[in-house]
Design brief:
single chain; alpha+beta; 6-stranded antiparallel β-sheet; 5 helices; globular
Length: 209
């Protein structure tokens, strides 16, 4: 009798186990994460979607970088254009100065005096000297000390004179170099020299620049 009950119990347990297996399988399938796919086609579709997303992300980043590079290049071009404009404006505004005129004139110290001449190397008179020096800077002056007495604008006194101003005397003209001194083609004996501006009576001071 006891043997029959044991067999019956084993049979019941086996039946319960077999019945529970499909139920457990369904439960496991329902709780499996979505990343586990039921077929190869689902997995391939998901992979393609992921790759498309990555490609689009990379493309967006590349386009963004490209836009930034283009903007930076444009800013650089604008900066260069601004720099070029500033350089041009500075050149046009500065031109040349009286000191540049004086420095050029000093190159010919000791040169020859020649009446009626205007050559800085082969001989020049006083007005020819100032005329030729300024001609080097594109400024035209008459070859006459009397006529140069009326060019440019008047300077009221020697104290207000600046380098490059014309210092005019009776029958003579010189170039002011500063510190109360002039450079001029004085005569045949002395040639082109530096003198005190008050060596003779000053009739006028003219600013050419």
């Amino acid at each position: 009798m006891k043997g029959n009950k044991l067999v019956t119990g084993i049979f019941v347990l086996a039946a319960c186990f077999l019945f529970s297996v499909p139920v457990m399988a369904d439960t496991v399938r329902e709780t499996v994460p979505a990343v586990i796919y039921t077929s190869e086609s689902d997995a391939e579709e998901a992979t393609e979607t992921s790759e498309d997303t990555a490609d689009n992300g990379t493309k967006d980043v590349a386009e963004s970088i490209g836009d930034t590079d283009a903007e930076n290049a444009e800013d650089t071009d604008n900066t260069e254009d601004t720099a070029d404009t500033a350089d041009t404006a500075e050149t046009e505004e500065v031109g040349f100065t009286g000191k540049m005129v004086v420095n050029f004139a000093r190159r010919f110290l000791g040169g020859k005096y020649r009446y009626g001449g205007s050559s800085l190397t082969n001989g020049t008179d006083c007005s020819g000297f100032t005329m030729s020096v300024y001609n080097n800077f594109g400024v035209s002056l008459p070859h006459s000390s009397k006529s140069q007495r009326s060019v440019g604008t008047a300077v009221s006194s020697l104290e207000e004179a600046e380098a490059g101003d014309l210092i005019c005397y009776s029958g003579h003209v010189a170039l002011y170099i500063g510190d109360g001194q002039i450079i001029h083609a004085l005569n045949e004996r002395k040639g082109i020299i530096i003198s005190d501006a008050r060596y003779n009576n000053i009739l006028a001071i003219r600013r050419v620049l």
